[in-house]
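FAQ: What does a ligand-bound record look like?

Like this one, built around nicotinamide-adenine-dinucleotide:
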Amino acid sequence: MDFTGQTVIITGAASGMGEATARMFAAAGAQVVVVDRNAEGASRVAAEIGAGMPLAGDVSDSAFCDQVVAETLARHGRVDVLVNAAGIILRANALNTTDEGWQRMMNVNVNGVFFMSRAAVAAMKAQGKGAIINFGSIWGDVGAAGVVAYCASKGAVHQITRAMALDHALDGIRINAVCPGEVNTPMLASGRDKAPSAADLQALADTTIPMKRLAQPEEIASVVLFLASDAASYMTGSMVAVDAGYTAR
Ligand SMILES: NC(=O)c1ccc[n+]([C@@H]2O[C@H](COP(=O)([O-])OP(=O)(O)OC[C@H]3O[C@@H](n4cnc5c(N)ncnc54)[C@H](O)[C@@H]3O)[C@@H](O)[C@H]2O)c1
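The answer part, i.e. the structure of the complex:
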């Protein structure tokens, strides 16, 4: 796939699937704008892929999201693609979820996707073309124990995707979500008392994933590039499961 001349904003680009997506877009010729609250990681990725100065900040701040789009327009004159990969997880049932924990999940996973998307569609509508790819999850469609706030937040991401796809179907803007299963990124260890061992992860795969292995971040990034490309020109409002059959049952 060739993205030469296209400008791609990627949130959460300092780690995991956002980073893999940034590397793949850069290799495909895109001008990548690296966005992450982790300034050090964002600088590392931006330098390694030859992107311009990264934009460090929190996507739950709508003013920051507006600034990301304004800065991208100032640098490159357009926003062709937005990838909303920034996200966090809280591993807790309802009784162990504090008000602050719940609100933080919604602020980042839901508000962050909405604020970035709202800012981007304004620019894309003026261009008459654009694509947004949100990171949903298998857990936006099916429930899982011990992650209630995360499940709720990803369900909301799926509905933001569907509703905005309908609103902008005639504006030349396609909005889809990629819905990964279990992917081998730092998030797998996030919010646990200790990082899972390789044996723990294989046991998880053996018991829950039909293909009996975790995904590598690049296996999700390649689907993001497809959704951003003209090869997906008839797709909008779709939840694209990339889950080795997890939700096929
Ligand atoms: N890893 C999985 O198994 C899995 C499965 C399904 C969906 N997802 C989703 O995929 C996306 C990417 O996850 P990952 O596994 O690559 O995670 P990751 O933890 O490796 O990377 C997430 C990145 O988002 C950044 N980030 C977090 N909060 C932010 C904020 N408020 N503002 C800006 N940046 C912020 C982090 O600094 C980090 O660089 C997330 O939305 C996640 O919920 C992950």
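Follow-up question: can I read anything off the structure? Yes, for example: The pocket of nicotinamide-adenine-dinucleotide is lined by residues 11-12, 14-18, 36-38, 41, 58-60, 85-88, 108, 112, 135, 137, 180, 182-183, 185-188, 190 (CB under 6 Å).
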